[in-house]
Structures are given as structure tokens and as C-alpha cells.
Amino acid sequence: YQDASYFDNPAHAPGKLITRLASDAPNIKAVVDARMLQVIYALSAIVACIVIAFIYCWQVAILGTSLILLLAFVMIGLAYKISVMNIEQIKNDEAGRIAIEIIENVKTIQLLTRCDMFFDHYETASKQQKRSELKKGMIEAINYSITQSFMYFMMCFTYAVGIRVIYQGDKSSDDTFKGIIAMMLGAVAVMNSAQYFPEFVKAKTAAGMLFNIIYRKPRTGDLMEGDRPEIRGNILFENVKFSYPQRPLQPIMKGLQWTALRGQTVG
């Protein structure tokens, strides 16, 4: 239902649109399963552990909550960086478009003996995609290493504060250890859910791209709305000007004027 100029844009070539529809939907589906439940469980566990820690030892709870918030800000920053890279990768994804166009025109390519040339184009685009994935993989690796070692940082800092609290007599050792164990369990919840971080970031980017396609309004208006005038069959063109959106300075029609009456055939 989109206007013709939408498909005239190279970013909306059939190959690229098919690639988006083929890859975005599975990426979104990947997180709407047990992984989503795991993350919900982890968030619930973190909230419960923070509440328990504040009840028994607020000094340990404040430190543990600060560490969790610091980790959250780091993860948000990494997620933003990966999202930007995902969008850039989608815009420059030539490998999928080339592959689809090769498949659609395979007989013509074979008849023209251009198989090697198209293979080289596809190989170059695939290598560019691979380099982009490797850069993204480095950021995901940093996130994974931080989150999977988070429990040990939590253990180190909470025990350091807890020993100080017990030494000064601010809290009993029983209450202090209850607060420490609560924050440790919160760190375990973070570790269990953070492994799905790449899938959620990829799903967020894919959902944005997919819904942009679905909900885009054509510039020519909605074909299901508007007036339904009575058509008499006479067509009049008066001073028509036209140029393609990608080449606005190269007019195709300039001052076109002609009339076609009802029943008349005009070429």
C-alpha cells in the first residue's frame, strides 16, 4: 500500500525489504518465550532482595543497591551503543539484498556468465557484515564479563562494609549476614538474566524497524480513505511536472498537457 516513491528509494529495494521481514520477526520472537520469564523473575528477585537487605542492614543494602544501579547504567550505555551499531548494520546490509537478487535472476546471471562477479560482490558484502558483527561481539563480550563477575564484586564490597558494621556494633552479625546474603542473591539474579542481553537489544532494534515498516503512512494518503467521486471517463493533464524522488533535478515530465476522452485510446 506504499506510494511508488517509497520503493524508488534504494533503502527500500525488494531485496532489503525481504531481508528485514525474514530476519526481524525471528529476532523479536526470540525474546518472547522463557527468556522473557527469566528476566521478569530476575527483576522481581532483585527488588525482593533489596527490600530484605534494607530491613536487616541498611548500610549493606545502600552499597549493594548502588552497585546494581551502576551496573544498570553501564548496561544501558552498552545497549545504546549496540542499538546504534545494529541500525547502521541494517542500513548497510547489502549481503541479503544481493543474495535475494541473485536467486531471483540466477538464469540471467548464468546466461551472461557473470557468476564470478556476483559472487565477489556477495563475498565483499558478507565480509563487511562480518566485521560489523565482530565489533558488536566485543561490546557484548565486555557486558558478559562484567555481569558474570558481578557477584564477586558484590561479595567483596558487601563483606567489607558488613565487617565494618559488625566491628562498630551498629548491627548484629546475624542481621548483617542476612543483608549480605540478600544482596548476593540479587547479584545471582543479575547474572542469570544478563546472559540474554544481546537477544533483547537485537529484538528492540528489530521491533523498531519492523513497526516502522508496518505503520508507515503513504505520502499519497490512505487508499481506504477519501472521497469516491463519480468518474465520467474524461482525463485532462494540465502542465504536469514530474521527477523521481531520488533524482529531483532530472525532470521526466515538464509542462505535459493532453486530453483523453471517454472511449478514446491514447499512447
Automatic annotation (TrEMBL):
Location of the ABC transmembrane type-1 domain: 1-202
Spans traversing the lipid bilayer: 39-56, 62-82, 141-167, 179-197
Coiled-coil portions: none
Pfam families given in the database record: ABC_membrane (PF00664)
Cited InterPro entries: ABC1_TM_dom, ABC1_TM_sf, P-loop_NTPase, Type_1_exporter
Protein's cellular compartments: Membrane
Membrane topology: Multi-pass membrane protein
Gene Ontology MF term list: ABC-type transporter activity; ATP binding
GO cellular component: membrane
Keyword entries, A-Z: Membrane, Transmembrane, Transmembrane helix
Protein name: PGP-14
